[in-house]
From TrEMBL:
It comes from Panagrolaimus davidi. Belongs to the small GTPase superfamily. Rab family. This is Rab5. SMART domains: RAB, RAS. InterPro entries: P-loop_NTPase, Small_GTPase. The keyword Glycoprotein does not apply.
């Protein structure tokens, strides 16, 4: 239910915890079985800043990702390593849609972030 209509998903596991990697594999299977056939799935090995405590080898996770057609990166939420990069990689893999934004590409437009002073908006932040 949470991923119905999703265009992308990031499945995260802890590189210092083998059980979290096994659970991540189960989530990948679930997404492949239940989600849209065109969903972009990324596998993120988090806590890369704790490489000295690594239990899940990079090569093992990378091979799993390749075998299942997943994007793969190791990340660190603590140091922000590869956090932006994984989102950018997902965005590059998403199909372009003329339908606009919104859930699953439905809807039109959104917020125009380029507009400097929308009609009726104040120029000061705290008055």
């Amino acid at each position: 239910m949470y991923y119905r209509g999703a265009q992308a998903a990031i499945v995260v596991y802890d590189i210092t915890n083998q059980e979290s990697f096994a659970k991540a594999k189960n989530w990948v299977k679930e997404l492949q079985r239940q989600a849209s056939p065109n969903i972009v799935i990324a596998l993120a090995g988090n806590k890369a800043d704790l490489a000295s405590k690594r239990v899940v080898e990079y090569e093992e996770a990378q091979a799993y990702a390749e075998d299942n057609g997943l994007l793969f990166m190791e990340t660190s939420a603590k140091s922000s390593m590869n956090v932006n990069d994984i989102f950018l990689a997902i965005a590059k893999k998403l199909p372009r849609s003329e339908a606009g934004g919104g859930p699953a590409g439905r809807g039109h437009g959104g917020i125009n972030v380029a507009e400097e002073n929308p009609q009726g908006a104040r120029k000061t932040c705290c008055s």
